[in-house]
């Protein structure tokens, strides 16, 4: 914190304005907040606390005026408050309501790690969803949130949302994640096609295992658009399989969204290198997915088309 008293004396000495010192003292002393503080704490302050604390009183007065005039101040987002410190006058800074609200919103948003997700996803709410065709999925999401919040140490099975492109599967899962964030429960949402590319890049930097460790143990994990990634036996077995195995063993809530059914996903994953049949490995992956999640079909209108239509009206 800069020395307000030293700056004030420098200002007075260098600019030959010491004659205004008395006026400044008078304005500070007659400030309603200063008067109230001095009267309220008169029995706690030393007899010469005013003269010893003039720099602090000026700091309080000056910063308060800047805030009132919407000027740049010493601690943006914070309001000065006079306090008694060892029987002398001091200044502390408390966050303004807008600052408190902004910090709370930022902390809540940080609980949902959702890179590569649409912007409207971050404002998704379960109570704002169009329920037509989504009744089962919405009911499952609400039931999960209530059950997990009530008993976070118990195992709660996730769900696998399947349905056409654009009908709101990811949006619903994002709404659920935002709801959980309100209870300080973090969620990681992975866009699987993007994640698979990132993991292949991680081979060059030798950080594959590190990235897997970062993902596998998060409290709530969502695999978004699984089945949309380029077929890769390595990603299936050494990345996805490892993460799913860990979460199955640790009984960690895991969710999926996909444009294909579980049956179709199993068939797609059964294609190995050079077209060989990898049904055994595919079955192993799907056994983990089915343990972690139950399949729910989502219907409804294409949300993207609806949003585009509204934007042109």
TrEMBL record:
InterPro entries: DnaI_N, P-loop_NTPase. It comes from the Bacteria. Transmembrane segments: none annotated. Residues 1-93 form the Primosomal DnaI N-terminal domain. This is Primosomal protein DnaI. It comes from Schleiferilactobacillus harbinensis. The lineage of its organism: Bacteria, Bacillati, Bacillota, Bacilli, Lactobacillales.
